[in-house]
Automatic annotation (TrEMBL):
Keywords: Ligase, Transferase. GO terms for molecular function: asparaginyl-tRNA synthase (glutamine-hydrolyzing) activity; glutaminyl-tRNA synthase (glutamine-hydrolyzing) activity; transferase activity. It comes from Sphingobium boeckii. It holds the Pfam family Amidase. This is Aspartyl-tRNA(Asn)/glutamyl-tRNA(Gln) amidotransferase subunit A. Residues 26-238, 330-428 form the Amidase domain. InterPro entries: Amidase, Amidase_dom, AS_sf, Carboxybiuret_hydro_AtzE. Its EC number is 6.3.5.6, 6.3.5.7.
Length: 451
């Protein structure tokens, strides 16, 4: 390797383009070059959009040359999980059976908002088939590898998005989160990610999985960059933020089954915040089971017809889980939905006393691909199905959650920052505060991605 390429963040990139220090075409060309050089090692990108990206970048440069403001994300390259509609491309949702589907007639609403802000779409990104998994092991596109250790999972189902940002291929990316599909890969790849308050960001043009739980959100390498992208996606200026003064750790379920590294990191975070109280939530196991049932039932129902006519076109791992979900009685589904009021009241009481709750995003560092299991109650369990142990109960309630990377040595780990519905802006402010105090920090881009 010779020399280094400076990899700019979201806000740095936009400022450089607006000032004329670098052109959008140069910025986008550099991103496409990094993808070409480094993606083969991690398999985060499924398709590049060279012609479109360079055309859109030239349009941004024309706005700058004319003295007009291209927008807050001027010239910033980004990628999207391969379940966002991209005009002219088939929306595969990671499935081989959709690779020749009719192309999308327009971009997803989220992409339109980002493009209107000056951002430039450069790639689509790998995922678990139909977003049903936590490791981004895709039968058609292949497995996405963790940029910090290619022998380990990147997490999923938005693993391509997280790995692309962690490796410095793009400054930010979009993913989706149903049961942890943003928070888990963000944690395992050492970057920030957000699952917003349910239904607060545009889902038009995003391939569905579980409508009760699905949300879209962004990945970035800093809390400020994440906030800048989130603000654009909301389509309006962010509201003023009220600082969180009463953080607490979640214990019980959220302390059990942790790796020693995560236990130590949570203790260090607590000390850094002056010593945090611990909150115990009742019957978290029921909330996780209910989220699991809702996922299986709604996912199975959505795919029931296709499974009946063409089951062999599915990845067997996905197919079997969808078929099992389609067999769940509707009465069980409704019981799982009703429990949300009960568990929601438990969480609301905790959030009245403590305005932000902190929990691990995963049990610890990314599992090895060759040993795809995690220990749950002393027994090895599938990582693909169980990495959401701590994220699923939170997804169940539709609360805003930020995955924040911890400043640990070695492999990345992250925590969930959880707040009441509608307090996304306040949560982003809290994440920036943690970052400013050195209590949260993205892992450095691996050196091979600098070459």
């Amino acid at each position: 390797m010779t020399g280094k390429t400076v990899i700019l963040g979201v806000l740095e990139s936009a400022a450089a383009v607006k000032s004329g220090r670098i052109s959008a075409v140069e910025l986008v060309s550099a991103a496409l070059g990094r993808i070409a050089e480094h993606n083969p090692a991690i398999n985060a990108v499924t398709r590049t959009l060279d012609e479109r990206a360079l055309r859109d970048a030239a349009a941004v440069d024309a706005e700058v040359a004319a003295g007009r403001d291209p927008g807050p994300l001027a010239g910033v390259p980004f990628g999207v999980k391969d379940l966002f509609d991209v005009e002219g491309l088939s929306t595969t949702a990671g499935a081989a059976r959709l690779k020749d589907a009719p192309p999308a007639s327009s971009d997803a609403e989220a992409i339109q908002r980002l493009q209107a802000s000056g951002a430039v779409l450069v790639a689509t990104l790998n995922m678990d088939e139909f977003a049903y998994g936590f490791v981004t092991d895709n039968a058609h596109w292949g497995i996405t590898l963790n940029p910090h250790d290619v022998d380990r999972f990147a997490g999923g189902s938005s693993g391509g998005s997280a790995a692309a940002v962690a490796a410095g291929l793009v400054p930010f990316a979009l993913g989706s989160d149903t049961n942890g599909s943003i928070r888990i890969p963000a944690s395992l790849c050492g970057i920030y990610g957000i699952k917003p308050t349910h239904a607060s960001l545009p889902m038009e043009g995003v391939y569905p999985f579980v409508h009760t739980l699905d949300d879209m959100g962004a990945f970035a390498r800093s809390a400020s960059d994440l906030a800048a992208v989130d603000e654009v996606l909301r389509g309006n200026a962010a509201s003023s933020s009220v600082p969180f003064q009463r953080p607490a750790l979640l214990g019980g379920w959220f302390h059990d089954n942790l790796a020693s590294q995560m236990t130590a990191a949570l203790e260090a975070l607590s000390i850094g915040l002056g010593g945090l109280p611990t909150v115990q939530l009742a019957e978290v196991d029921r909330a996780r089971s209910a989220a699991f049932l809702i996922t299986a039932f709604e996912g199975g129902a959505y795919h029931r017809d296709a499974l009946g006519t063409d089951p062999l076109s599915y990845d067997p791992m996905t197919r079997d889980r969808l078929i099992a979900g389609a067999a769940i009685p509707e009465a069980i589904y409704h019981e799982a939905m009703r429990y949300r009021d009960i568990f929601g009241a438990v969480m609301a009481a905790a959030l009245e006393t403590h305005d932000v709750l902190i929990a691990p995003a995963t049990f610890g560092p990314a599992p090895l691909i060759a040993d795809p299991f995690i220990a749950v109650d002393g027994k090895p369990q599938s990582a693909r199905a169980n990495l959401g142990l701590y994220t699923q109960p939170i997804s169940y309630l539709g609360l805003p959650v930020i995955a924040a990377p911890l400043p640990v040595e070695g492999l990345p780990m992250g925590v969930q920052l959880i707040a009441a519905k509608g307090r996304d802006t306040d949560l982003l402010h809290f994440a920036r505060t943690l970052e400013a105090r050195g209590l949260a920090a993205a892992h450095a881009v691996p050196q091979e991605a600098h070459a």
